[in-house]
Amino acid sequence: MSFALTDMKKNTITIMSLFFLYLLACSRALSTKIGVNFGRLGNNLPSASKSIELLQTMKAGRVKLYDADHEILRLLSATKLEVTIMVTNEEITGIAGSQDISDRWVYEHILNHYPDTMIRTVLVGNEVLSYTTTDQDRQIMQDLVPAMVRIRASLKTVGINNIKIGTPLAMDIMESTFPPSSGRFKPEIVDEIVPLLDFINGTNSFFFIDIYPYFSWAEDPLCISLDYALLEGGPMYTDPGTGLTYTNLLDQMLDSVFFAMAKYGYSDVMIAIAETGWPHDGDLTQHGANRENAAVYNRNVIRKMTAVPPKGTPARPGVIIPTYIFSLYDENEKLGPESERHWGLLNPDGSPVYKVDLSGKAYKT
Ligand SMILES: *[C@@H]1O[C@H](CO)[C@@H](O)[C@H](O)[C@H]1NC(C)=O
């Protein structure tokens, strides 16, 4: 009798632990899904509904918008795509200054669509700490964290607790990235970055970074091997500060951010990649910008970020790094060198520039 009881207890415990393992596996499966940036700076792009159809065909797990467009959010309600929306830089100061404005933003852009549309992240502003020239830029910088706090309060008021709040920053926030252990933020943004880290840490959110090994390699193609930038191997690098060995440039850059955060005590803050990618075409002088490199880079990133168990980085092995590829389309209205208009996974007519499997299944070894 007592034996049977113990056995039953054991079974219950086994079932319960299996259940928790299952939950863990599911949440992991969810978070390793690859996202795609849905930039729309083109005058020749397919309709919103066609675009969403394409995202599903490509097996994207998440989509990131640069705004909170109503039509797109409405159409996304018919999908299982996890959605990241953005507060534009111009909206930040208004939201920071008034809970009412924040509540209205959340009502209009989130409550109108949630939960049918699986909005999971609100990113406040885009690369806000990279713009420091005008008074308005500096005002937006100062208003960034207060606006994030307001949006959080608005969400709390309406009882939503499964939407993360973050802000994507660019690598130019870094004073030093090499060796990775020397990673340091620029002194002029420390006043903003520390409260930001505090907010992210306190809300269990992510530090979103736009990270492009392509640009680092293109600046220094003689010193950095192309294979290393493409996650194809190449010479390994050992950081003398930590003894950690690196096999690719992306890990090096990610860990430089990790070490910069750790210098302020925030070594548990999770990193997410809000943008990464490789241009598939460019000016004659932009040698690395070609279709083959773009395909290799994106496939390798997808393979790395969908690996189970997660790969992480040398400084943080095993962690999940949610990743959004830039970008869905070639965008012909982007300014700058020719490569800027060729980051797309798809041509403007919706045909693939090269084959990628965003589910990562094709790259399992
Ligand atoms: C980050 O958050 C954790 C958990 O809430 C807390 O224990 C820790 O002190 C925080 N870190 C910093 C540097 O504030």
UniProtKB/TrEMBL annotation:
The cross-references to Pfam families, in alphabetical order and at most eight, read: Glyco_hydro_17
**Gene3D superfamilies from the UniProt entry:** Glycosidases
Can you provide one Gene Ontology molecular function annotated for this UniProt record? glucan endo-1,3-beta-D-glucosidase activity
Q: Which Enzyme Commission number(s) are listed?
A: 3.2.1.39
GO aspect biological process, one term = carbohydrate metabolic process
Protein name (Swiss-Prot/TrEMBL): glucan endo-1,3-beta-D-glucosidase
What family classification does the UniProt entry report for this protein?
A: Belongs to the glycosyl hydrolase 17 family.
Q: Which UniProt keywords apply?
A: Glycosidase, Hydrolase, Signal
Which reactions does this protein catalyse?
Hydrolysis of (1->3)-beta-D-glucosidic linkages in (1->3)-beta-D-glucans
Question: Hydrolase: present as a keyword of the record?
Answer: yes
Signal peptide range in chain numbering: none
